[in-house]
Amino acid sequence: MGISARLTFTPERLALQFELEHAARDIFGVCADLEGVIATIEPSEATRSVMATVSPWSATRRVSEWLVHHAPWQTVVAHWVPITMSRQIDNANAPRDFAERFARIPTGSERVRIDRYDTPTGPRFEAYLAGTDFGAGPDNPWWVGANTELLASGVSRSMSAAESALAHAGVTGTTSIVFTGHSQGGALALALANSGRYAVAAVFTAGTPAGLVESPANVPVVHVVHPEDPVPALGGVIRGTAGTTWIVHTEPRSTGTSAHLAENYQSSLGKLASVRDPGLMTLENQLRIDGRGTAMWFRSTLSE
What we know:
This protein is an alpha/beta fold. It contains 10 helices and 11 strands. It starts with 10 loop residues before the first helix and ends with a strand.
């Protein structure tokens, strides 16, 4: 932003020039702070490709389609997969925002965490769903083949395991619930919200191939995607009522599997929180509850 040299240098105009230049510096600083943070509604595949600095989004989508039709591990989905509640902690604090929810997604053999909070209007649940266990075999519901099951049929053994955990925790079709998931866990959150079997208050996902399933109608949905992360591209274009998708670069920049790591998404959610987007803040405030509840962790295996 420049100021015309033709201005008459009266004190008033000098003051105006100073104020405009000061405002220009402020705007430049804000733009620098927000670089790589772009909020869009239902981004097209072409837009994603540009944001990903010409990453092969369409090519990775073709890979996922080939896997659906040719994967040797495609099997009949097991329903109501046996689950075990591995631990329970009372007096858990309720989450305040997306970043706190994402930090509660379990790791290791525990792939589901469900919190219950009692409110004046009845129980409220928060479900946290982990992503694919790339080191697991087909006896683990969260193995890589569950993604192709979900894309091919709309259900998967991991989705069945999650539903088993929800039933064990006391979630019904009328109890309010918020789903948060990373990677495959986010796709499961969307599929469960879209099933119509739960009273879903919101869905939060990060690093998720959201195009694997239809997005739920009339449910607030927030996605966070690293343009350097190839996994979200495996789902292709987000279908249905996509909600809000935030494209956030990794800092420091990373690519491939590193960009997909949960810890890198946790850092990006901190950056997103600093933006203080009014829409996201309003949603988080609407979901906020006071008091403490009970946290439950679950694991499952098809061999048991």
